[in-house]
Amino acid sequence: MATNGTSQRVVDYDWEKALEETSGTPAPDSMEADLDAGAAPLSPAERSKGNLELLLDIPLEITAELGRAKMIINDLLQLGQGSVIELNKLAEEPLEILINQKLIARGEVVVVNEKFGIRLTDVISPLERIKQLT
Questions:
Q1: Burial class, 89, CB count within 10 angstroms (exposed 0-12 / middle 13-18 / buried 19+)
Q2: Are residues 104 and 75 in the same domain?
Q3: Tens-place pLDDT, residues 75-102
Q4: Does the predicted TM-score (pTM) go above 0.90?
């Protein structure tokens, strides 16, 4: 339990009450609601599964980057059909797969049923992904 310098107790914030006040609808305590309904309380695993399901529908932007190039506006305006833009990577180098502009993996281009695809050859470790966030 946390205390401030004057040895008074710090009261935990009541998030359910705040939710009820802002939304206008009561936020049922899941354990009390389950007990009132005659059902067994949800296990922590069942609760975390419900929380995970909220995250599964979040859209993410996936980008496959072959390379990059810098050019001045005059050169950009001169581009036309058949123009070639030289990228900063060699042909043998793997392309990078970015999710929301963060490197997540590297791979190579493949053709499957006359469509392009990417074969992942190196997935960035979770520790390295966390380091990218800071």
A1: middle
A2: yes
A3: 999 999 999 999 998 888 999 999 988 9
A4: no
